[in-house]
Design goal:
Blueprint: E1 5-9, H1 13-24, E2 28-33, H2 36-42, E3 48-51, H3 57-62, E4 70-73, H4 79-92, E5 96-100, H5 104-112, E6 117-119, H6 121-134, E7 138-143, E8 148-154, H7 164-167, H8 169-173, E9 175-182, E10 185-187, E11 201-207, H9 208-220
């Protein structure tokens, strides 16, 4: 997994979660918010955290956003600020912009002004809860597209003590293990010889169909 430079604009609950997760996976993350208290709260977890107006073009350009691989517009219920920030980061030259939408109309507007991907956290939460109920070990479930999904999975008993080579998830299900988390420690580039231990969390990336097959296997085990 190559390290990327990612800017997260808006450090509320959703933005903070995205920023911390990206940082924990080894990416360089810049957090930006107009609230200095939120910036202070995230400053130790991120590569950089800056308090500024995310709708001010000069301020955003001064942050060097044109050099970033991706920007996440995670602004909450201020629809106007969300749309303006999306327009600005695209004009600055960020190649890939992910924007959070509060609803369908907001989402369509974000797409029209240049967002490359629109996410609906409140709507998608229902799918995550459903998956966690079906398979108690599934902690989180994020569809990147209809074809690909990221899933956080607490190591099932049948995985414990086995190496990634033993599990052979790529061959069996088309799934890659992106990271293994043990408490505060993150192994962001696990090797085939690394073993899975009890209580660890596995971050999996694969085809949605492959992950569904894995879930069914875990339910039947």
């Amino acid at each position: 997994m190559s390290k990327k430079q990612i800017a997260v604009l808006g450090l509320g609950r959703f933005g903070a979660s995205v920023a911390r997760t990206l940082a924990s996976l080894g990416h360089e993350v810049l957090g930006v918010d107009g609230n200095p208290d939120l910036v202070d709260l995230l400053s130790r977890d991120l590569t950089h955290a800056v308090a500024c107006d995310v709708t001010d073009e000069d301020s955003l350009r001064a942050l060097g956003l044109r050099n970033f691989d991706c920007a996440v517009i995670a602004i909450g219920h201020d629809v106007q600020a969300s749309i303006l920030a999306t327009v600005l980061v695209k004009e600055i030259g960020v190649p890939f912009v992910v924007a959070k939408a509060a609803g369908k109309l907001h989402g369509r507007t974000l797409e029209k002004v240049g967002a490359d991907k629109v996410v609906y956290p409140e709507r998608d939460m229902g799918a995550r809860i459903a998956h966690s109920l079906l398979t108690g070990s599934v902690m989180d479930y994020i569809e990147l597209s209809p074809e690909y999904t990221i899933m956080e999975l607490v190591a099932p008993p049948g995985f414990v003590g086995k190496s990634l080579r033993d599990l052979n998830l790529r061959a069996l299900y088309g799934i890659n293990v992106m990271a293994i988390k043990s408490g505060e420690m993150i192994n962001a580039a696990p090797l085939a010889t690394d073993r899975v231990h009890q209580g660890e969390t596995m971050v999996l990336l694969g085809s949605t169909e492959g992950l569904h097959r894995l879930e069914r296997m875990l339910q039947e085990a």
